[in-house]
Amino acid sequence: MIRKFDFLIIGGGVAGMSYALKVSQSGKGKVALVCKTTLDEANTAKAQGGIASVTNLKVDNFEKHIQDTMVAGDFISDPAAVEQVVKGGPAGIADLVKWGVNFDKDAEGNFDLHREGGHCEFRILHHADDTGFEIQRGLMEAVRKDQNITVLENHFAVEIITQHHMGIRVTRRTPDIECFGAYILNPETGKIDTYLSKVTLMATGGTGAVYATTTNPNIATGDGIAMVYRAKGKVQDMEFVQFHPTALYNPAERHPAYLITEAMRGYGGILRLPNGEEFMQKYDERLSLAPRDIVARAIDKEMKIHGLDHVCLDVTHKDPEETKHHFPNIYAKCLSIGIDITKEYIPVAPCAHYMCGGIKVDLDGQSSIRRLYAVGECSCTGLHGGNRLASNSLIEAVVYADAAAKHSLEVIDQYSFNDKVPEWNDEGTMTNEEKVLIAQDAKEVNQIMSTYVGIVRSDLRLHRAWERLDLLYEETEHLFKRVKPTKDICELRNLINVGYLITRQAIERKESRGLHYTVDYPKHALDNPKLQK
Fold this sequence. Notes:
Elements: E1 2-10, H1 14-24, E2 31-34, E3 51-52, H2 62-72, H3 79-98, E4 124-125, H4 131-145, E5 149-152, E6 156-161, E7 181-185, E8 192-202, H5 223-230, E9 235-236, E10 241-248, H6 263-266, E11 270-272, H7 292-306, E12 311-314, H8 320-326, H9 328-336, E13 346-355, E14 358-360, E15 372-374, E16 379-380, H10 392-411, H11 435-452, H12 459-482, H13 487-508
Parallel strand pairs: 1-2, 1-8, 2-5, 8-15, 14-16
Antiparallel strand pairs: 3-4, 6-7, 7-8, 9-14, 10-13, 11-12, 12-13
Helix pairs in contact: 1-4, 1-10, 2-3, 3-10, 5-13, 8-9, 11-12, 11-13, 12-13
C-alpha cells in the first residue's frame, strides 16, 4: 500500500510532536506522526529533572547559560548551536505553555526554578519530579486535538527511501542523496507499506537500549540513526555516550533503570560510600554538582576501588516534608522497594542515559540528505559537544523543532512526491521462526557494549567490541535477507549498527575528551588528572 503525506514524522517525543504542531498549524499540507509503540512511551516521558531556560533575568542571563553549556561540553560544542538553543529557550518554553504544559510556580506566580549539576544559576523549570511526563502529556493532548495530524501508533519505520531503492548507486560520497519517504511496517497486516513525503523528520530518540543497563525505555534502539547511516547520511560524535551518574541500583529492574534526577543533587543531595564517607572532594571542587561525565567516572572509580555494586545519595539531612514535596515519585518508588529516602541512603550507580551524537544537522535541523531533517536525541546539533549539560536536551528539541519547521515550510513547495518509488519487495522470504536467535543476539550486543564500550575504555576493549559486533552484523544481515521483516529483527539490526558507530568513532578519537574516556591517551589540560586510572 502507498500512502502520501506532505510531512512525515518518525518519532513521537517532544521533538516530533513540537514539529508536528508547528507544521500542521501552517496549513501547508497533511502531517503523519509515526510511533513504534504508543505516544506515551516516548523517552521524553522518562525525563524527571526539568528543562533549562533563562527566565529569571534578575540573576541569570544568556551568557551564563552559554558558558555553562560550553564548559560541560568540554569546549567542543558548536558555539552557534549553543547560542541558538540558549537564546531560543524562552520562546520554546512559551510554546510549551501555549500547548498546555504546566510548570511549577512559586507563591508569587514565577517559575519555581531548580539548579542542577554544571549550572551556575537556578534555571531549571520543572513539574515536580516528572517534568518529561508532563511535557509529553501536554503535547499529546494538543496533537490528538489537531485533526490535520494523523497519528500512527505501533508502526515501525524500517528504512528511509532514497535513490538507492530506485536502482541508483548511492555511496557516502554521493552529493545529492534525497529522501522520498520511508518504508513502514504495518502491525495489523504484517506488511511493509510505502509512505511518500515531501519532507521527512527523524525524531526517533536515543540509543540507551544498546547497553545492558539504561534509564531509557526498551524502545530506545537508535532506529533513526541506524536508518540514516544505512542511507549513507552523516552521523557524528557517537563516542559521546552520557552515563547518568545516579540511576537507582535495583538488580531486579535494569532495563530500564529508574532515574534519580540530577535535581536531587541540586537540592542538596550528597554522594557517599555506603559507610557514609564522602568522596567527590577527591575529584572536583564542585563536589556532587560537578558535570555528569566527571561524577559518573568518579563513582565508577570508587566502585572499582572498593569492590562495590553501587554508591549512595544522601538527602536524610534535608527536611523530610520538603523532600517528599519536591520528589514525590522518587520517594514513592524508593519506598516501594523498602527505602525511605528521608531516613536512608539511596543506592545509585551510573548507567547509559543519553546520546550526545547522532545524525549530523545544521542550524535548521537539516541532515546531509536532502528533504530529511533530524531533531531531538537522534540528532547531533553540536549543542552538547563532549558532554550534555543537565536539562539542555528538552529545550534543544523544542528550539530545533521550531527551526526545522520554519525551514521546511519555506522550501516544501519546491518538492513533490516521487511516484517512481517501488513498493517493498519481500518475495522469496519466509516467516522468521528463529526468534530465540534474535533475543540472544540482542543480549550479546548489550553485553559487548557494557563490557568493552562503557564509562572507561581502551583500544584493546574497543577493538574486541568491533570484532564481535562485526560477526553479529554478518549473521543478522544474512538472516534479514531471508525472512519477512519484523520489529524485533529490525531493532536488532539497528542496535548492531549503533553499537558499531559508537565503537568505531570511539576508536577514531585519539584522546580522552568529555564523555569519551580511554586509558590509552592522556587527558588534556582541561580534564581532571585525579580521574585517570
